[in-house]
Write a structure and sequence with these properties.
This protein is mainly alpha-helical and 342 residues long. Helix content is 79%, strand content 0%. It contains 17 helices and no strands. It is elongated, with a radius of gyration of 22 Å. The model has no long low-confidence stretch (mean pLDDT 82).
C-alpha cells in the first residue's frame, strides 16, 4: 500500500473512532429506547438492505461491461468486472473527495491486459454517465421534495445543497472537455511537458512525450467510439440508473427493519440523494463523520426514537461504506484471471 493510502486509512480509522464515540455519547441515558428498538428489529429487512448493496455492485459491473467493445467483452473476465466496482469502493473510501475511484478502476482494467488509453476512456465515460445520472436524480428529488427539505430539515444542511450541485456540474463539464476536445487536452499536455522536460534527460523525455501522445490519441479515439455507439452508452446509463436506485433504497430497508412501516420510500430515497451529493463537499476520506452527521440531520423527521436513529446510522454505514472497504481490500489482494476463456 502506498504511503499516502496508509495515511488515508489511518485518517479513516481515527475519524471512525471519533464518530463512534460521538454516537455512543448520543446513546447515553437512552437504555430503554435502545431496548425498545432492538425488540422490534426485523433481521430480514437488514438482510434485504445488504443484498441491495451487493446488487448495486453487480449492476455497476454491468455498467462497465456495457461500455466495452465486442473484443474486450470476450477477453475481460467477470472476475475483473466485479473487481472494478469493488476497487472503486476502496478508492473512493480512502481518498478525499473520492478522487481515488477512477485510478482504482483503471488499475483493475489494466491488470486484465486492456490498453491503458482504452481503459481510461471507458472509466472516464462511465464516470461521466454516473455524474450525469446523479445530477438528474438530484434535480428530480430536489424539485419534488423542495418544501420538505426546507421545512423539516436543518437549515445548516440545506445551505450546502447549491454548492454540491455546482461542484458536480463543474466535474461533468471538465470531463466532457477533456474527452471530446482534443486540442484542449494537447495544450495541457504541452504545458506539462515543458515543466517536466526541465527535470528529465532528453532521451527519456522524448520517449515519455511520444508515449503520452500515443495514449491520448487512443484515448480520444476510444471516447469517440463509445459515444458513437449509442446502444452501449444507453446500456451503461440504464445499469447506472438501476444501480443508484438500488443504492438509494438501502436506508429504507434499514429503517423498515426497526418497525417504521409507514415511512415514505420516495422521501427516504430523496434524502439519501441529498446526502450523496453533499458529502462530496467534505475533503475527508469516505466522508467519515460528515456522512453520519448529514444522515442524522436529514432522517430525524422519519425516525423519532433517538436511539433507533443511532442504530440506523451505524448499520447504514456498515452496509454502504465499511463493507465496501473490506470487500475492496479483498479484491485488491486476491489474484484475478487476466483473460476469459473463449
Amino acid at each position: 500500500m502506498l504511503k499516502r493510502n496508509r495515511i488515508s486509512a489511518l485518517i479513516v480509522v481515527v475519524l471512525t473512532g471519533i464518530t463512534i464515540f460521538y454516537l455512543h455519547r448520543e446513546l447515553r441515558g437512552k437504555g430503554k429506547q435502545l431496548e425498545a428498538a432492538l425488540h422490534v428489529l426485523d433481521w430480514r429487512w437488514l438482510l434485504g438492505g445488504f443484498l441491495m448493496m451487493v446488487l448495486s455492485i453487480f449492476l455497476e459491473a454491468l455498467a462497465t461491461r456495457a461500455l466495452l467493445d465486442r473484443e474486450d467483452r470476450s477477453e475481460v473476465t467477470w472476475g475483473t468486472l466485479i473487481r472494478v466496482p469493488l476497487l472503486n469502493l476502496l478508492g473512493t473510501g480512502l481518498t478525499p473527495f473520492a478522487s481515488g475511484g477512477q485510478p482504482a478502476q483503471l488499475y483493475a482494467l489494466a491488470h486484465s491486459k486492456m490498453d491503458g488509453g482504452r481503459a481510461m476512456s471507458i472509466i472516464l465515460m462511465k464516470f461521466l454517465v454516473y455524474q450525469v445520472v446523479v445530477v438528474v436524480f438530484f434535480l428530480v428529488g430536489y424539485v419534488a421534495a423542495d418544501n420538505f427539505i426546507y421545512q423539516q430539515v436543518d437549515p445548516t444542511f440545506a445551505n450546502f445543497i447549491p454548492f454540491a450541485i455546482l461542484i458536480h456540474a463543474v466535474v461533468i463539464i471538465g470531463i466532457a472537455l477533456v474527452m471530446f476536445w482534443p486540442s484542449f487536452t494537447l495544450k495541457l499536455v504541452d504545458l506539462t511537458e515543458r515543466l517536466i522536460g526541465k527535470f528529465l534527460e532528453p532521451e527519456r523525455y522524448q520517449r515519455l512525450v511520444d508515449n503520452l501522445k500515443e495514449k491520448i490519441e487512443n484515448f480520444h479515439f476510444e471516447s469517440r467510439r463509445v459515444i458513437s455507439n449509442w446502444r452501449d452508452l444507453l446500456g451503461s446509463t440504464f445499469f447506472t440508473t438501476l444501480q443508484l436506485i438500488v443504492f438509494y433504497m438501502i436506508p429504507y430497508f434499514v429503517i423498515r427493519a426497526f418497525g417504521y412501516a409507514d415511512v415514505n420510500p420516495w422521501l427516504i430515497v430523496t434524502m439519501n440523494i441529498m446526502i450523496v451529493m453533499v458529502i462530496s463537499l467534505f475533503p475527508i476520506p469516505g466522508g467519515v463523520g460528515g456522512a453520519e452527521l448529514s444522515f442524522q440531520l436529514l432522517f430525524t423527521p422519519f425516525v423519532k426514537n433517538p436511539a433507533t436513529l443511532i442504530l440506523v446510522i451505524l448499520i447504514w454505514r456498515l452496509i454502504t461504506y465499511y463493507f465496501g472497504l473490506f470487500a475492496g481490500i479483498i479484491a485488491y489482494i486476491l489474484p484475478v484471471s487476466k483473460t476469459a476463456k473463449k
